[in-house]
Write a sequence for this structure.
């Protein structure tokens, strides 16, 4: 399987393990959206370190995950964007709103913890 | 120098191959970071346009070299109905409906040269290029080697 999804309490950790085809990206979006409801998930972390390309399609799918998960009550943080990929995304001028990124899992958990402890209510 | 590589584009899985081949060729040619990633991303966009709008086509990757530059040419070919409004396809369109409107201008920003020709009879050809000036030292060394050989 190209993506391993791990559940840790009310947290989902999706680790992408190889470059994904478009249909695999769509499958990930659908799986995560469903699992948020099934397990009363509050936070999602998506590790994209294995992706050597984040193009407009992948960026759009990530945005869709963030927005649909939010409507289901969960916040999402993307981790592991490679330096070259970050440069390409900026030069491409991809629309990155409302993606939230962190360097690693620890940093992502800290962000999510702050969110679930009240920050989620203050307008975001 | 190496030969050209052709990747048939028939489904979204072929984009993965096209990206990987493009990156591999860029690395083989000696492009510094982050160029191989920029090239792979641009290839991904124009190959997806083929899958989404036409269904099938081809990506051709060609190394090129002249006196003081090396580079990679990417050609995306399809025999589809053509793009009616080429200018609109290259314009930034934040709404991004259907994939066109974001991919092309984005790919263009990642490469050094970008050319699009399209008509209803022949389909669409996108030619993109990325190149680098060769390292001064490497050039001098090569020059000396050539001089030594002719002596």
């Amino acid at each position: 399987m190209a993506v391993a999804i791990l559940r840790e309490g009310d947290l989902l950790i999706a680790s992408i393990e190889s470059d994904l085809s478009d249909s695999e990206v769509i499958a990930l979006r659908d799986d995560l959206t469903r699992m948020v409801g099934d397990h009363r998930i509050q936070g999602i972390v998506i590790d994209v370190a294995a992706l050597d390309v984040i193009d407009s399609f992948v960026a759009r799918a990530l945005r869709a995950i963030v927005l649909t998960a939010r409507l289901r009550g969960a916040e999402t943080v993307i981790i592991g964007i490679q330096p070259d990929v970050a440069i390409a995304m900026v030069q491409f001028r991809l629309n990155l709103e409302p993606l939230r990124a962190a360097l690693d899992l620890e940093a992502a958990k800290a962000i999510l913890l702050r969110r679930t402890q009240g920050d989620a209510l203050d307008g975001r | 120098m190496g030969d050209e590589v052709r990747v048939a584009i028939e489904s979204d899985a072929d984009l993965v191959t096209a990206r990987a081949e493009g990156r591999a060729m860029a690395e083989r040619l000696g492009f510094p970071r982050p160029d191989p990633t920029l090239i792979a991303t641009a290839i991904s966009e124009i190959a997806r346009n083929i899958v989404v709008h036409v269904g099938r086509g081809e990506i051709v990757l060609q190394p090129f070299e002249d006196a003081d530059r090396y580079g990679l040419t990417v050609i995306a070919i399809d025999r589809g109905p053509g793009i009616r409004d080429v200018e609109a396809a290259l314009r930034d369109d934040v709404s991004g409906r259907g994939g066109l409107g974001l991919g092309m201008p984005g790919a263009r920003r990642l490469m050094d040269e970008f050319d699009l020709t399209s008509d209803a009879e022949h389909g669409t050809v996108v030619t993109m290029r990325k190149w680098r000036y060769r390292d001064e030292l490497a050039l001098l060394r090569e020059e000396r080697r050539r001089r030594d050989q002719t002596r």
User: Anything to note?
Assistant: Chain B has one domain: 5-150. Residues 35-53 of chain B form the longest helix (19 residues). Chain B is about 45% helix and 30% strand. The two ends of chain B are 25 Å apart (CA to CA).
